[in-house]
Amino acid sequence: MPAVTRSRILAACAVPVLALFAVAALAPLPFSLAEPGLTADVLGERKGEKVITVSGAETRRTSGELLMTTIAATGPDADVGLADVVDGWFRSDRAVMPRDSVYPVGENPEEIERHTREEMKQSQDTATAAALDLLDRSPKKVRVTLRLADVGGPSAGLMFALGVVDTLDGDGRGGDLTGGATIAGTGTITADGRVGPVGGVPLKTQAAARDGATAFLVPKAECGDAAKEKPAGLRLIPVTSLKGAVTALTALRDGGRVPTC
């Protein structure tokens, strides 16, 4: 085949290929972009309200902070293009996540908001049950109310439970779990105190370091992801249970042996 003819054929084939790349670059893709979100001290106040209030039992004055952490993601109807995805892949302060993993219930904003609020309410109830079970307190006698505006999802369960434990009992000997430090973390929790994995851990560690945390409680299954992009000066502590988290914090405060990722 003459060279000129081959060139014309290749040129003709290149046109639709380039057109496909152009369309892909402009078309929205099924991804969300996430970055470090807000943190909130579960031992303190949020928007003028105490996060944890208790009736039916004495509470104790706490020091330090227990920060729950979040990610901030683009909305379900946001147009995320190829350029955004490529940029996100090469940045440590941003993550590209499948949209379905961030918004598993669809693209209706009202439906998504309702779903995340329901997850948060269930997480709060389960965290309370786990904390009272650990402390051998009766939920019929002790009423715990958790309030945290503008935050949804189940990933604050561990930190809520630790906040209830610290508010009611501390370390059991009058001391704070935090030792006056700022401790952050993430993880779902079951009523019997088992800690489960969540999404976006590397971004949450960045949010924690940004807001002054010196240690971060991470579900043990996600130690690898957390360690890959660990912020300088932030200690990663793997946990599998609420009891284990309390033990680790007490050891950290007292200079004892603490597991690390």
From TrEMBL:
Highest taxon of source: Bacteria
Q: Which InterPro entries match?
A: Lon_proteolytic (IPR008269), Ribosomal_Su5_D2-typ_SF (IPR020568), Ribsml_uS5_D2-typ_fold_subgr (IPR014721)
Question: Where in the sequence is the signal peptide annotated?
Answer: 1-27
- Residue ranges of the Lon proteolytic domain? 153-226
Q: Does the keyword Ion transport apply?
A: no
- Keyword annotations from UniProtKB, A to Z: Signal
UniProt keyword Signal, yes or no: yes
Write the protein's name: Lon proteolytic domain-containing protein
The organism of origin for this protein: Streptomyces zingiberis
